[in-house]
Amino acid sequence: MSSLNSKCIKIKFITDINDVLYINSIIDSYEGVGIVRTIDSAKGKVVIFTSSGMCKYALNVLKSLKDEGLNIKNIIVEENEEVDSF
After folding, report:
1. What mean pLDDT is predicted for residues 30-56?
2. What is the CA angle 51-35-32, rounded to 5?
3. Which of 20, 29, 43, 71 registers the highest number of CB atoms within 10 A of its CB?
């Protein structure tokens, strides 16, 4: 798939705020998989911005982190260009 045809995908989830930096570090280590942004730190709302071609890889990373014991819940995947909405 051409990067020009990729759609912006938001993977929204809730996690413990103490784990956001770790999740961000792991996602960053997989270059091109996505960008992590905290939407509401008090509620642990986080989003990963990724492309349609990389979405499955980002979801696999989240699954691995859950299997590792991180509290990651309410995962929602949506195609959405609005970066400031949760």
Report:
1. 94
2. 55
3. 20
